[in-house]
Amino acid sequence: VSYVVGKDRIIFATKEDHETPSSAELVADDPDDPYEEQGLILPNGDINWNCPCLGGMASGPCGEQFKSAFSCFHYSTEEIKGSDCVDQFRAMQECMQKYPDLYPQEDENEEKEKSSKDLEATPMEASAAKEEKGSS
């Protein structure tokens, strides 16, 4: 059993599979995969929920929330595309936070948040120090 996630092909192997030499062939593009050639957007403009490029986000416990948010963004006609989809994206984010093993949060974002909080604190202290100097 194998499926594609982004640029990677994931293959599930049994114990028996590991006991014999691999006969797996690495194929960049499978011409027989009907979804591979369609891409994310189907010719009629609909979203291809089976596209491997979605990495399985459309299925799983938060699949409906993902579909709702992604559909809203895709069909958004607002000047700032997707600005009318905040509620759907919030619902998706809240759902994903309930399943951290399935939807790991980016460690980079946590690091950025920590450093931005540190940066926010620094100018306040600096401006407070200037005010004290100015009042004496």
UniProtKB/TrEMBL annotation:
One of its GO terms (biological process) is mitochondrial respiratory chain complex assembly. Residues 111-120 have a biased composition (Basic and acidic residues). GO terms for cellular component: mitochondrial intermembrane space. Pfam families: CHCH. It is found in: Mitochondrion intermembrane space. One of its GO terms (molecular function) is protein-disulfide reductase activity. The keyword Membrane does not apply. Signal peptide: none annotated. Residues 27-36 have a biased composition (Acidic residues). Keywords: Disulfide bond, Mitochondrion, Oxidoreductase, Protein transport, Redox-active center, Translocation, Transport. Residues 62-98 form the CHCH domain. Residues 18-37, 100-136 are annotated as: Disordered. PANTHER family: COILED-COIL-HELIX-COILED-COIL-HELIX DOMAIN CONTAINING 4. This is MIA40 protein. It comes from Scopus umbretta. The gene is Chchd4.
